[in-house]
Amino acid sequence: MRLGSPLTSPTQKHVDGINGQTVLEGYREELMNSFASQMARYNPLNVQRPQSSMLLNVNDPIQVHLLVETALGDSSEYEVLSPEEVDNLKKQCQSLTQRIKQTQQNLAIQSKYRDASISMSKLYNPSDKKESRKRSVLSHHKSDSVKEADIERMRCEERCEELALELWSLEKRLIEPQKRLLKHTAGVLQMTHKGPEKVTNGQGVQQNGIPGSPESMYTYHNSKNSLGPSLDDDLFDDRSLYRDADKLETYGETPKRNGFEPHPLSLPSKTQGREQMQMAKTEKKLEDLNGKLREAIIRANPDREQTLGQIPTSKVSNGRSMDANETLTSHLDFLEKGIDAEFDRQMEEAERRQEESDAAMEETIEDMNREIRGILLSYDPNRPELPELTGTGLQNQLLYFQESVRVIEAELAHSHDYSSIKAINNDTGQMETILMGLWDIIQSGYGEIRKQKQERRINRSANGLPDDDESDDDGGDSDETYSLQAFSKKVQWLYGQATKLKDQKKVLQVQIKQQRELNNKSDATKDTEMRQKSEELERTRSLLVRAEADSDRVREQLSEVMEKLNEARQNENLLDQQRSTSESSAVRAAQDESNQRLAIIQKLEGELEELKDDHSIAGAEFKAKLSTAESRIAEMTAQLKAATEEKAQWKDSMVERDVAIEQKEHEMENMKMKLAELQTEVTIARAELDGAYGSRAQRAAEVAANPVIAREIDSLTRNNASLAAEITELKSASASAGQGSKDSDQRIEVLKKELTETIEDYEKMTKANIEWEKERERLEETIDKLRDQREQLEAELSDEKVRWLGMRSPIGMDGPPSEAGRTSTTVLKEEFKKMMRTTRADSAKVVRAEQAERRRLEDELRSLKKSLGPGKSNLGQNLRPA
């Protein structure tokens, strides 16, 4: 790129279709006078309101009346707000105003920066094409300086445009609340406006001998229409709602002014009580607000506690204020005093910050002027001294800087007329000297880095630690002599190392991010699995409890069956005794069948006992396995908690390493900025030496006499080496942390495997329990069938008993057949009724016993659930990761 060729303009900012450069041009006049406020209008003829137009004649009643009527008509539709909304709008206006002032100050400072950068860019850009052609041969080594100057100028312009757009948007936002406040004020004044009263004697009331307006001679109005009729004098005067607090003592009276008589108002007692309550609430709110304001001011500046004094308190007697005027006035005075104190503090803080900013800027420009003067002293020993630091402005320093820039431009233009050839011959030697100095600095820096690495290796080997330095040591030979090829190779190697470090940093960041995502995902998966296993464990417990309850119920049913069988045996024994004399083949067959059924029942009872034993054994085994599984779960939970704690510690260490990496990156960026500043200073010095006189030896001696740059480059090289060593340590620490994460993942996998085996055991036990449940149902069906058969046998036995009773009746043997039939029938009925009553009573007893047993079992089950409740919650808590 040729020296002085124009660069592309900075990127234009757009907000709502507004160009940033256009907005900045609109603020040009304000920037020239540093956003000084415009002078308000002044009309000495208007004593009451001097800030008015010179064309306004306040002594003309017609003109004033027209203005009043126009204002009333225009503001008739304006919105009237509540006090809370007005306070909010005022707070918005105050906040936006402060931000606008701060933005204006920043824009003024940035505009000065922009002017300075433009002046600096003129050092490198020629003023005409002829001079550009003369300097095009020498400008190949100045392209970096030109680029940096133009980039700095574009950055300043871009920043100015951004601040201008921000200022424009803030001013636009401020318009809306100000507009609403002004409309509210106009609406309130229009609503409460009251024209002159109509006097009773019919004579017009004059003000200083002049009627207030032509309308005031004949009309009186108390509404929004000034031509409306007069209202009743006893109506409520709504103007009292907008009176000041110190005028409430004269509430209900119209001041006697310019001939008007007072207008007393008679208000109801209810309205007075409401007003007194409102005044008490207002005093309380003011007292609370003053307390908060006093605390905020003392917190910001404890020295103001004595000057502020104490908060005025309300004087209340019998629920109402004794001296409302004095109390409200004292509260308002204290509030005004606190607001003024806070505003003064904020203004002092803003002025202090502005003074510090101006002082820092003045010192920076003074440093630049000192450097430029040091450069120009070799050409002009009579250069004037620098202006002293005033701390009040930058004008003197900027003027001196602009004068120095003009001198440099003149010197450059003068020197290039006859020293271009000499500068070309001397440029190579000068560049050789500078490059040799940089070569020596780089070589010494790498020698020191190697020495530090060697000492670190020795220390680690002495402590029995392995060498953790895996960095590339191919930095060349520290004793290598200077050559242009070697210098180019060294610079390329440095660039490659920097690129490699950036790539490694990106890879580490990606790995850390992936590890975090994996850890979060694994945590969520583990939580889900543990929750599912807990639910399965709860279901297994419920199945076990239900199986125990069913086994108890089967045991009770079996006991009932056994009792009924004993009763049946007794009945059969009685029947055997009764049938000892005369036994028929049918009874004998029934007896055989009953014996067979009894054998089957006994067999089933034996099987049921065996099943009960098996069930009790299986239940004991299940309980033992359950206790073993719970202990294993507790151990696994403890291990999982320890692994989670290790994982949390590892995360904390990773966060600390990220913070350390960010700090090192920040330090590296600062070093890069310092290196850029040093390159800028070297470029300026190089530009000065291009037009210098004297031999090569003299220039080399002058360069050697200024060791500041060499020391700064040496310190930067050492800082670079220390940063590289710290990055290496962070990489090794990250690798070790990754190994720890792998160990914790392996432990989690082992715990997960053990938990899976435990769950499989649970599933097996659950399947066995289900099989036992099916076997129990099958046995219940068999018992039901046997019960039906027993009932059928009981019915057959009852029939046989009835039949045999009829056969053995004595009446049936001796009496007549009709009487015998009637007697046998009666006996049979009586016996059947007795038998049914006995059966019903037995059934009722059985039902009551079953209900009592069921209630007892339900109570035991509830108590068992209550006793198992805390253990279940503790197990669920143990299963959750810490």
Automatic annotation (TrEMBL):
Gene Ontology terms: cellular component: cytoplasm
Biased composition (Basic and acidic residues): 250-260, 836-863
Residue intervals of the Up-regulated during septation protein domain: 64-192
Coiled-coil region list: 713-803
DUF7801 domain ranges (all copies): 657-806
Protein name (database record): Up-regulated during septation-domain-containing protein
Comp. bias (Acidic residues): 466-480
Any one GO molecular-function label of the UniProt entry: DNA binding
Ranges annotated as biased composition (Polar residues): 200-210, 571-585
Region (Disordered): 120-149, 195-214, 250-281, 452-481, 519-538, 568-592, 836-882
PANTHER family: CHROMOSOME PARTITION PROTEIN MUKB (PTHR42963), DUF4476 DOMAIN-CONTAINING PROTEIN (PTHR42963:SF1)
InterPro entries, sorted: DUF7801 (IPR056703), MukB/SMC (IPR050308), Uds1 (IPR029191)
Species, as recorded: Calycina marina
Keywords from the UniProt entry: Coiled coil, Cytoplasm, DNA-binding
